[in-house]
Amino acid sequence: MSTIYEGNHYIVRALEGTDEKNIIVTSFTGVGAPERHDGTFFGYSLAKKLDLPWVGIIAKHDCWYRDGDYLQAFNAALHWIQTRKQTLHTQDISLLGYGVSMGAYAVIKYSRLFNFDYVISMAPQWSIDKSEVNHHSHFQNFFQPILKSMGIQTDDTHGKIYVFFDPYEKPDAEEVKLIQQKTPAFSVPVCHAGHMVTARLKGTKIFQKLVSNLDNPAAIRRIAARTRRNTPENIFKILRYAQRKSPLWVFRLLTSDHPANREILDHFMRHHDADMRVLAAELARTGHSTEATQLFRQLGGNYRQVFTASYVLTWTGELLCYDIAEKSFLQTKHHIPERGAPVILNDDDLYAFTPAGLIPLACQTQQDGFCFSIRTENGHLSARPDGTVAPVSHVMDWEKFCVLQYQQT
Fold it and tell me: Structurally, how many domains does the chain consist of?
């Protein structure tokens, strides 16, 4: 990879790729791009793995490619593209523009200037100029006078333009609606992906599929939909929704012997530890203590138990502890106390379980099915995701505690 241009506002870097390819890619970075500092360009890993001729334009500032030396940077990229076309082994060469967010705007806005045959635009803006749009935008705080009347027009565009967006991300959906009113772009919904739709469509296999079907809008939409549905993140989102209604069903699905389920569980164990602990807590709160214990063992190391205690479990999936010196409640980390002693329930009373014995705690419990609330002189206890426990004036059902009994091993 080489740097072919650097000015005050832009950097242009290029990767030669193999002479056997029939496509050249030009990419544009998004807001706050890490490529400003890491010596690469947007899409570098794709370019390297697929050995593609690729030129990347990196904006040093969040300016939507409209200020400073952008024309000089574009001219440097265009010169590289023309030179590289002459050295490829085929005459039938396609030019593909590829951008994300701010760069997704640029890849459409300048598609005629670059003479792109195809454009892949990931969550673009049509304009962040409030005088041009009525809807709220995540990026209107970035507006500056140079962006006045920045809206994309038909005369700006060239080639087949694919706009990937999440239709449930309302600001992005409004942007795409305006883009389609002004340009002949094809919309490609990527549901529940959020603004960073690239996270749901990442990987060389997906990129290759998209590039192979750039003349077929229906195929592009199918590829995006199938890919989004099959990502671990989307599957887990569905499971997270399902666990609110039936945590036992989710547990049985994840722990079944089906190889696909085993792979999903392993992925979540590695990357979604906190969410899995919440699932285990939900199991305990709904009376499925055996299943909760099994899941906690998988998460925590399966240490030997020498007796059974009625530990107090928070909604976060951690155990309640009490720091006697500080006179404060807190939570374990992966069921191991970092400070204080575990709190246990015995005959409706709470105790700090210490080597010296059970120390009674000045608080009351109020039972509600399998769960109970805990009230101290400062208010009801409420566990927090950061491991703390705070007093609140009113406790919600999801904040209540339950008992977890590890079985002897």
Answer: 2
For the CA atoms of 179, 181, 186, 189, the dihedral, rounded to the nearest 10 degrees, stands at 70
287-320: pLDDT as tens digits = 888 888 888 877 766 555 545 678 999 999 999 9
Q: Is the pLDDT of residue 324 over 50?
A: yes
- What is the separation, in whole angstroms, between the first and last Cα of the chain? 58
Percent of residues in the chain assigned helix, strand, coil, to nearest 5: 35, 25, 40
What is 332-371 written as a DSSP string? -BTTB-SSSEEEEEETTEEEEEETTEEEE-S-EEEEETTE
Is residue 240 situated within a structural domain? no
362's tokens = 């000045």
Within-domain flag for 9: yes
CA 135 to chain centre: 24
Looking at the structure, do residues 308 and 208 belong to the same domain, yes or no? no
Q: What is the CATH number of the domain that holds 359?
A: 2.80.10
323 plus 184 within the same structural domain: no
The rounded distance, in Å, linking the Cα atoms of 98 and 93 is 16
The single-letter DSSP state of residue 316 is: T
Q: How many CB atoms lie within 10 A of CB 250?
A: 20
Quick check: 209 pLDDT over 50?
Answer: yes
321 CB-contact burial (10 Å; exposed 0-12 / middle 13-18 / buried 19+)? buried
Contact 119, 106 (CB under 8 A): no
Residue 117 sits in the same domain as residue 191: yes
The pLDDT mean for the chain works out to: 89
Question: Which contiguous run of DSSP H or E holds residue 23?
Answer: strand 23-28
Q: Closest Cα to residue 305, out of 196, 192, 407?
A: 407
Q: Domain containing 359: what range?
A: 252-405
Distance, in Å, from the CA atom of 120 to the CA atom of 164, rounded to the nearest integer, reads 8
Quote the pLDDT of residue 306.
47
Name the region of 357 (left: φ>0; alpha: ψ -120 to 50; beta: rest). left
